Amino acid sequence: MQPVPPNKQQALVDRLTEQCGGAYSPETRRKHFITGPQWAAAYQGQALFYAPTRTPVTFEDVIREFGKIGIGYWCTHDSDVIPSAQLGKDGQSEIIARIQKSLNDHGVKCSMVTTETFFHEVFAAGPAPESPEVREYSAFRVRNTVDIGHELGAQYAVYWPGSLGYFVQGAIDEMQQLRWYAGALNAACERDIEVAKKKGRPTLKHCLEAKPFEPQAEILLPTSDAMLGFISSGVLTHPEMVGLNPEYLHELMWGGAPRAALARALLAGKLWHLDINDGYRLKHDVDIGMGLVNPLDWLNVLMLLRSNGFNGPFNLDFKAPRTTSNHGVFSVSFPSAVDRFITLWEIAGDALTDPIINEATAALKAGSGVSAGTDGHAIAEANKELLTLHELIAHRLVQLLLGLHRGRKIFA
Ligand code: GLT
Ligand code: MN
Ligand code: MN
User: Fold this and answer.
1) pTM for the full predicted model
2) Ligand 2 centre from 333 Cα, in Å?
3) Among positive and negative, which fits the CA dihedral 117, 122, 128, 129?
């Protein structure tokens, strides 16, 4: 092949993207409760050890492009768009008005706001350290985020306490820091009740997001399960207002099975928001686009969610690789992530109504009908052939995933 000069490269990528097929219309995409984070779209590829590979984009660019793609909802940290020095000051309302205008112009809604309690120097010792002034500042930040959320019409607030922890041992009192962290959440909920009442709006759903490592070495609330324990531990004044925003990859990072983690959250009635992405077990937070690494596992996860009535928000918390250009972020990364999600969601629907899977599942639940009392060996013998269905169900799911039930098409 001839070299592809710089001025021909975008056209080549666009043509091949088009040839991939499988894209949904913006209208179809908008039917799903899919949300796109400002920080994900604006990420310049500058993770630890790396220089940025992309140029900055504004929130206006992000919202406009989300609107074109058919991503119906936008979410943001308090400080993604509003410089932290302006938070709670006059500059904040001026920026919020500009955000609102962009959202209106492009038919996008704000679904969620989240407080950044990790990046700013003030959070060097985390969001709930010894210093009462820092804790008062954290409370101000979460209260102010609640205000921003209500102004922008959001329904959800997310908190990621990744900096609640330590690098070196000896200085941290875990009991106290957990109580202090609860204090910040309590401040957010109390402000929410006040503002919601004043505005005649429902209160927000406050969702905790766990990640087992990064940026601290040891994290006090490292998993969704740890957070469930925290929510019901008695330290929150409004535990009914606090639930979870699990992230698919964050559960893999500690070696968990995301589907089982989500099942536990569903059982507790706390699965309220979900960050969708992909990556590898026991590795750092690579935030790869949903379905690029573990499509079969994702199919299983979506079957669980569909059959338990969870319809979103599905938050595209992934990061385009450093090799993707600014143009590629909106022409390839976001639309293809949405389309993989929708396809897997539809296949999950097919799998849930698949006659083979359904009959196999029903047969497994029916058992053998042979009552052998307390004779374990006889019970096992009587069920032996039925249990082969486990493997058959797995085969059927892979068939549905890869379209193998339709036969492989060979193009001449
Ligand atoms: C940070 C984290 C994400 C969280 C964001 C919400 S912050 O980017 O790695 O997984 O969803 O605060
Ligand atoms: Mn996340
Ligand atoms: Mn992540």
Assistant:
1) 0.96
2) 17
3) positive
